[in-house]
């Protein structure tokens, strides 16, 4: 009987530990909670606008105090200030200096004035069927690769009027460095020409150039191609982001924003 009670107690301990472990696993992961995102955003907003949040109550208190002053109080205050002219001048200069320092060092607003997207000629328009046919003619993909490509085409939202590189539409295809550079020039120069025409900005007035390409990363860089083609000024801040995937588009925009603020 003693052994049986001991076994029952051990099984009870095991079940209790298992139950606690099960409850522990079901606890929410607060680090992954979406509510933390709003906490971070609120904290960032609070820190960014701390000066305004402190000045608003202070201005309210000062306004309430001045509203209680009479004309005699203002005359008395002015007579006292005349005898403390040095203090008044020093305080005024200090306030002007601090205000100027704040407005000079605060982050500047950056605006998107205009943008342009390059649209190729209709001759390089490609349907899904033509794409799959060119992939088969390349003879470098297995049936499993082709099935995967077809699945991606069906699920990625690519339509029947998408554009394809001219070098890969030829029979046989000619994927080489020269064709890739020619395609990059066609896309970049076409978009930049359209943008300069829409905004009226001269190429010599551009001070920052940020170029991003997910896959094609040649030497000389794509940014060097743009600088040489448009004869941009010699002290231009040029950045070339390559091999970072599609997410580098957001990184390049953030980089340009920070550079403009500085």
Briefly summarize what is shown.
By secondary structure, the protein is mostly helical.
Task: Describe the 3D structure.
- With 262 residues, the protein is mainly alpha-helical.
- Helix content is 62%, strand content 6%.
- The protein is built from 11 helices and 4 strands.
- The strands form 2 sheets. Strands 1-2 form a two-stranded antiparallel sheet.
- Strand 3, helix 10 and strand 4 (237-242) form a beta-alpha-beta unit.
- Helix 6 (128-138) packs antiparallel against helix 7 (143-155).
- The protein is elongated and about 95 Å long.
- Residues 1-12 and 14-25 have low confidence and may be disordered.
What's the arrangement of strands in the largest beta sheet? 1-2
- Main pleated sheet: 2 strands, antiparallel
Helical fraction equals 55-70%
Radius of gyration: 33 Å
Number of DSSP helical runs? 11
**String of helices and strands:** HHHHHEHHEHHEHEH
Q: Poorly predicted ranges (pLDDT <50, ≥5 residues)?
A: 1-12, 14-25
Task: Give the averaged pLDDT, no decimals.
Answer: 80
**Strand elements, count:** 4
Structural class by secondary-structure content: mainly alpha
**How far from one another are the termini?**
82 Å
Shape: elongated
């Amino acid at each position: 009987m003693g052994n049986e009670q001991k076994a029952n107690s051990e099984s009870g301990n095991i079940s209790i530990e298992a139950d606690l472990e099960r409850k522990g696993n079901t606890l929410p992961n607060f680090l992954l909670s979406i509510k933390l995102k709003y906490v971070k955003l609120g904290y960032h907003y609070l820190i960014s606008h701390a000066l305004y949040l402190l000045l608003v109550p202070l201005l309210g208190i000062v306004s309430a105090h001045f509203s209680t002053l009479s004309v005699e109080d203002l005359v008395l205050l002015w007579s006292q200030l005349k005898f403390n002219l040095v203090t008044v001048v020093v305080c005024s200069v200090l306030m002007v200096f601090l205000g100027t320092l704040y407005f000079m060092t605060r982050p500047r607003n950056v605006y998107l004035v205009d943008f342009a997207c390059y649209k190729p000629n209709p001759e390089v328009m490609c349907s899904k069927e033509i794409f799959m046919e060119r992939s088969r003619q390349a003879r470098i993909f297995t049936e499993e690769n082709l099935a995967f490509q077809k699945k991606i085409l069906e699920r990625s939202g690519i339509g029947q009027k998408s554009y394809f590189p001219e070098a890969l539409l030829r029979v046989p295809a000619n994927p080489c460095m020269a064709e890739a550079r020619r395609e990059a020039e066609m896309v970049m120069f076409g978009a930049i020409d359209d943008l300069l025409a829409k905004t009226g900005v001269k190429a010599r007035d551009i001070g920052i150039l940020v170029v991003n390409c997910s896959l094609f990363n040649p030497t000389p860089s794509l940014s060097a191609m743009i600088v040489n083609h448009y004869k941009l000024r010699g002290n231009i801040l040029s950045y070339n982001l390559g091999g970072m995937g599609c997410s580098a588009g957001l990184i390049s925009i953030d980089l340009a924003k920070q550079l403009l603020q500085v």
